[in-house]
Write the structure tokens for this entry.
Amino acid sequence: MGAHLSPWPTYTSGQTILCKRKPCSEDSRKRASSWQQQPLSTSKPRYLEQLENYLRKELLLLDLGTDSSQELRLQPYREIFEFFIEDFKTYKPLLASIKNAYEVMLAHQREKIRSLEPLKAKIVTMNEDSSEKILAMRAEEKYEISVLKKEKMNLLKLIDKKNEEKISLQSEVTKLRKSLAEEYLRYLTERDARKILIGDLNELRYQREDMSLAQSPGVWGEDPVKLTLALKMTRQDLTRTQMELNTMKANFGDVVPRRDFEMQEKTNLELQFQLESLRADYEEVRKEHELLLQLHMSTLKERDQYYSELQEIQRTSTPRPDWTKCESVIAGGPERWLMLAEGKNSDQLVDVLLEEIGNGLLREKDFFPGLGFEESVPAFLRFDGPVENKKPSKKELIQILEDAWKERLAEDQKELFSDFFFNFLERRFGVNDAVAWAYTIFEYIKLFHTSEVISQFYAVLMGKKLESVYINQKETLAHLLKEMMNADTQNEGLITMEQLSTILKTTFPLKKEEQIQELMEAAGWNTDSSTTDTLTYRQLFKEDEEGQSEPFVQKLWEQYDNEKETYLLELKQDLGLDLPEEVSLLKMRGALMNIDPNIDKQTLSAYLGQAYQLPAADLPLEDDEKMEAIVIKFQTALERLLMADTKRIGPREADTKRVGPREAETAS
């Protein structure tokens, strides 16, 4: 170490670094003079030069090879660093730890690169697959475009052919007009020559008569004055006749004979008819071409949509479940499961299964935790502490809800429905058990969605629907039953299908023929056979133990929901707004009157009050400025109208002709 190492450039640090002295002191001057006397340049240590020469040679040898990698180029630097570590014993631990840290990092980076190699190959494969799909789609589109171009060229050729036929017809018309003019001139010339010939013949005849008179012996005996006067009058008649002849020539010289005129007019009408026919054909071909282009664009969009849907379905599709596995799980065995699953699709079967599972879980609970007294908690559930689970059966629960509805319909309905519900429970079960029954009924009606009675009661209780919807349904069923009873004159409980059709058309004058047909089929009428002439109409309004209605009533409420959605969709289309946009009270009133011209003022005020949450008496229906100032989000208005008993009052303008005067009067 002593022979090979030197303190370069450490021994010059004392010479190159000046001490902090005052610039005007004597020490600073001495140091400056002594520093100026030292040499400014020093040579490198021999060990450093050997290391640099070694590194240069190794790198030169590596550059001579063609396959030298970056990993191989680091090897000379590693060897020189190891020389430093071995020679500098004092700094060996620190330098070795530095070297190990870098080696670990390089090994980690190599492992990371090696792990990313399969991903790179996968990306390349996916890129190739995507490129092949894109090329296939482009080839398909190119083929379709070529087919459409060929069709376009054929249509253009057809149009050119029609244009050529039109030009040829026009040239024929021109030739016919020219030949007509030539024939007219020829006939005119012949007529003039004939008239001149007739004049000459008359003149010769007059001369011959004059000569015969002059030669006859009796002429010499007449009075010459009389002959002169006769000659004068004859010449005057000749002059007048000549003037009339000239006038006739002047007035009718260019007149075509009527027969030729009618022939040319007939030919002209035929040509005009052919021209109009060609124009109509051309316009039809042009429209068909535009329709084909639009159809092509829509087909492309549908193809892309169906392709994306196919990919999504292929990605998310799952095998259909085997519902027979539920027979051993559901209480009651296969017989009860078959009864529950009858006539239901997969979505409805999932609801049934969830209800059965949830019912079992609820029956395992003995207590419910109280929800407290916060404002977000419904008024009838505000209680702190555990609440007993009464564990009623589904039949008992439905009976309680039906009794609650009967009592609600019998009172004045001034208090809120939630307050009435809690008061009803207090009257029925007592003050101590009212809270327990409130929690029990609430938890159970949240679970059962397939029962109509339970789902309607839950929707009204939670404010998702208004009471008027349920009341209207009950009144409609009562009115329909009354009409059927009036038609049953023999009081046998039977009516014919023809009577049922008449009652439905009278009770629901706004329903279409297809909807009446659906209701009759739900009632039991089969279009394929005429064996079912009568039906027991009271069976149509019965409910089973779980509150399920007959198919006739279910179809009636299904049509009611569809008609409400259609009505609100027409309202949205008339306004032309998106759901996030706001709509004023004035525009909403105009839209309701446009889509339902026969709506009365009271119903209009009720709809507007429900949409804008204002009392009907406070609506400024006579002041357009105030109505324009009252705005609300369109989505909120639609949701509120969907909660209420919103329906069409009168027929549409397009359906006025189809609806008779009696039906229109009944609807209004």
